[in-house]
Design a protein that fits this description.
The chain contains 8 helices and 5 strands. It is α/β, with parallel strands linked by helices and 194 residues long. Bound molecules: shikimate-3-phosphate.
């Protein structure tokens, strides 16, 4: 049986890290935070990378971290939280094409409020209008994920249960008849309009 992985995607402050940590804890899988991985590879914080290299420089570092994660094979089953812009880049979606990606969808007003209070410095968050505009631009990309989970008003537990159920994470791939390994997750419907 191959190593399994689930990638969490979505806008800034959509709960990718909290859901990812909780999902990994429940399943006994590793949790990988891609932004933290980028910071340790680059030995710079995300805001510093943006200041010194701009968004294009950050995107290069992001793709390179993702490519390495996928090419030096994952050693254990993992839940991976991607940064908010990662799944928007076509080259990253292509790298992830054979893996299940879960879009955590939440109302824009909730995302904005949470982004103000969660203590994370986000170079791409300016004001409510710019935030809304960026969200609207990105939504069609997020919707290309294998699974869309609406998180509004739900506890972490029920969000995790929903993901576990939809992706059959508690069954072995043999039991489930569909794998979560990168070979055959396509039965989850990536690419279909949601
Ligand atoms: C970004 C989101 C951030 C981080 C970087 C760029 C984006 O991650 O990757 O600041 O483009 O939306 P979070 O989604 O965890 O805030």
């Amino acid at each position: 049986m191959g190593v399994r992985a689930v990638f969490l995607v979505g806008f800034m402050a959509s709960g990718k890290s909290s859901v990812g940590q909780e999902l990994a804890r429940r399943l006994g899988w590793d949790f990988v935070d891609m932004d933290a991985r980028i910071e340790s590879r680059e030995r710079q914080s995300i805001p510093e990378i943006f200041r010194q290299r701009g968004e294009p420089g950050f995107r290069l570092a992001e793709t390179s971290a993702l490519r390495d994660l996928l090419t030096e094979p994952l050693k254990r089953d993992s839940v991976v939280a991607l940064g908010g812009g990662a799944f928007v880049q076509e080259r990253n979606r292509e790298l992830l094409r054979q893996w299940p990606a879960v879009f955590l969808e939440a109302p824009l007003s909730e995302l904005w409020q949470r982004s103000l209070t969660d203590g994370v410095e986000r170079p791409l968050r300016e004001d409510p209008e710019q935030f809304a505009q960026l969200y609207a631009e990105r939504l069609p990309c997020y919707r290309q994920a294998s699974l869309v989970v609406e998180t509004a008003g739900k506890q972490l537990t029920s969000i995790c249960e929903e993901i576990e159920g939809a992706l059959q994470l508690r069954s072995t791939p043999e039991d489930a008849g569909v794998g979560l390994s990168r070979i055959d997750h396509t039965s989850f419907g990536r690419g279909e309009s949601q």
